[in-house]
Write a structure and sequence with these properties.
This protein is mostly helical and 196 residues long. Helix content is 73%, strand content 0%.
């Protein structure tokens, strides 16, 4: 009888341990997914602001249609990529980031084109939208950092003993983090050509 009580006690401890590990992993996974949602929300805000800016710019009579089309297409591509952070691979995150970089590349061309339209640049609506986009870029960086922090907490918890045993048993996997773009570690060269 005493033997069965000891075995029952050990089994009870294992069950409590596994439930506790499982619940802990569910909690930190949910935190990481919430952080990812905030990343997506920030990107969506930027895309919406860029579309508003494109609409503002379209009012300029002779504005380059190809530039506007490029921005609109890049924005559409970026918003078409959906990722489940708990199943995201580094390649999927890289594809997502590449699409977002495409939006910013097209947006940069738009801003260069706007330089030829001083009246448009001077409108309050244009300046406000440009300022909001700059603020949103900062917000995106903050949210990506928070996402990486949440993933780090999740991954550390998942790798600790004995949770690592239950993590594999319950199908929890490592999550991917945002990484800097290739070449981001190099200082960009800034060069001004003042030709007269």
């Amino acid at each position: 009888m005493k033997k069965w009580l000891i075995i029952g006690g050990i089994l009870l401890i294992l069950v409590i341990w596994s439930v506790s590990s499982y619940n802990g992993l569910v909690g930190v996974e949910a935190d990481a997914k919430t952080a990812w949602s905030k990343v997506e929300s920030s990107y969506q805000r930027r895309n919406d602001l860029i579309q508003n800016l494109v609409n503002t710019v379209q009012g300029a009579a002779d504005f380059e249609k190809s530039t506007l089309t490029e921005v609109t297409e890049a924005r559409a591509k970026a918003t078409s990529i959906n990722i489940d952070p708990s199943k995201a691979t580094p390649e999927q995150l890289a594809q997502f980031q590449e699409a977002q970089n495409g939006v910013m590349g097209a947006f940069s061309k738009l801003l260069v084109s706007v330089e030829r339209y001083p009246d448009l640049k001077a409108t309050q609506n244009f300046r406000d939208l440009q300022s909001q986009i700059e603020g949103t870029e900062n917000r995106i960086n903050v949210e990506r950092d928070r996402y990486n922090d949440a993933v780090n907490i999740y991954d550390i918890k998942m790798k600790k003993f004995p949770t690592v045993i239950f993590a594999k048993l319950f199908g929890f996997n490592e999550m991917s983090r945002f990484k800097a773009d290739a070449g981001a570690e190099k200082t960009p060269k800034v060069q001004f050509d003042f030709k007269k």
